[in-house]
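Morning!

This is the sequence you dropped in the shared folder:
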Amino acid sequence: MKYHIEKQGDEVVISFDQQDEQAQAMIEAIGRCRQSAWACPSGECMKIADMETRADGGTLAVRLKPRADLALSVVSIGECLKYQLPKEIQA
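The structure's back. Tokens below.
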């Protein structure tokens, strides 16, 4: 599963190359992290105020919006994903 994480303004966008079960599993992992970020070493998910998912053609993207007066880090969000996801999905 290939994905890309980038900063767009104050938001972080994670784009998945395919719309499949693995992409959905990643989006669910972000949601789990937001609900119980105490389990994540970086704690970055606690900074997420809102998530918006959008499908476009064969790709899927999730836009993460930070809480007021906080900034999201691409590196830390990547660490959250690595921590939350099963090894077979991490690529």
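Headline: Residues 25 and 62 are 12 Å apart (CA to CA).

More detail when I'm at my desk.
O.
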